[in-house]
Amino acid sequence: MKNTIFTGAGIAIITPFNEDGTINFDCLGKMIDNQIESGTDAIIICGTTGEASTMSDDEHLECIKFAVKHTAGRVPVIAGTGSNDTKYAVELSKEAEAAGADGLLVVTPYYNKATQKGLILHFNAIADAVNIPIILYNIPGRTGMSIEVSTVKELAKHKNIVGLKEASGNISYAAKLLAECGDVIDVYSGNDDIIVPMMSLGAKGVISVLSHVIPKETHMMTQYCLENNFAEAAKLQLEYMDLINNLFIEVNPIPVKEAMNMMGVNVGPCRMPLCEMTDDHKAALKASLVKHGLVK
Q: SS3 of 79, please?
């Protein structure tokens, strides 16, 4: 097995915005500190939850540089650098490496898609261009395509491709992936509702949204799994299922940003085209936060 970037709970951290739409770096720094102090094992910056798709190039790189500098080596910083344009993904990945990122999260090309052969060429081109580890990101619900298990096995031959964030929500796919590739690539759950099932099959942890609101508990859930104490891990998984479901009651990161604002962390709005939650969804989300003592 290659070197593992992290085990446990990494946070797919949101990007807080000021009311004028600019990035609130003061808030981002406080969030990073709180996560690390609460046991979070890695910071994943500029991913789906971080709204990287709405950022300019300058904003994207500024966020990565800030996260690296502020984290200051306390935990790994993994930068989202994926694109549906291979050339752009290569350049962004090189810049993230130069900024000091410990690893990269690279999503499957979207909209134009690719054949499985195209995926191999795409990811290998990025891996050839850098000298830091890469986590592939499989999320067919957003990209319109999936990385086949045989493709993962082929990509795992590259020394820099060390992990895969599996966010299809398909536990059968995950089981096949871990059965055939678990000895050559680290797998992380990309879905908070199946952290324990995934880790019981051999996943190394989770890249989490839930960590925003209960970082200590999310970290402990993964630690119990890593200690083979799946009974205690399952208790936490089941205890927080209502909260997990309501954090995805609308498109991520709309609910988690609303939750943070409800909890008194002023992270601001999402950028368009993501918009404010409906009132009934806000009520359901708040009910879960109240139930777990996160707001009054």
A: strand
Tell me how crowded residue 182 is: count the other CB atoms within 10 A of its CB: 16
Give the tens place of pLDDT for each residue, 57-82.
Answer: 999 999 999 999 999 999 999 999 99
Residue 157, pLDDT score: 97
In the prediction, which pLDDT does 2 show?
A: 72
pLDDT at 1 over 60: no
Q: Which residues of 260-283 are buried (b: 16+ CB within 10 A; e: fewer)?
A: bebeebebbbbeeebeebeeebbe
Q: Per DSSP, which regions of the chain are E strands?
A: 8-12, 42-45, 77-80, 103-107, 134-138, 161-166, 186-189, 205-208
Q: Residue 170's closest CA among 204, 136, 147?
A: 147
DSSP state of 210: G
- For range 115-142, the mean pLDDT: 97
Residue 48 near residue 9 (C-beta atoms within 8 A): no
Q: What is the pLDDT of residues 183-206, one digit of tens each?
A: 999 999 999 999 999 999 999 999
Q: What are phi and psi of 106, to 5 degrees?
A: -120, 110
Rounded Cα distance, 105 and 195, in Å: 19
Helix (H) or strand (E) holding 282: helix 279-291
Q: Which two tokens stand for residue 78?
A: 């993994």
Cα–Cα–Cα angle for 237, 241, 246, rounded to 5 degrees: 145
Q: Which residue has the tokens 């067919």?
A: 140
Residues with catalytic annotation? Answer: 137, 165
Complete domains list, the chain, with CATH: 8-228 (3.20.20.70)
Contact partners, residue 291, CB within 8 Å, separation at least 6 = 242, 243
Q: Which long-range contacts (CB under 8 A, 24 or more apart) does 199-204 make?
A: 199/225, 199/226, 199/230, 199/233, 200/225, 200/230, 201/174, 201/175, 202/178, 203/166, 203/174, 203/178, 204/4, 204/6, 204/7, 204/8, 204/163
Give the tens place of pLDDT for each residue, 222-258: 999 999 999 999 999 999 999 999 999 999 999 999 9
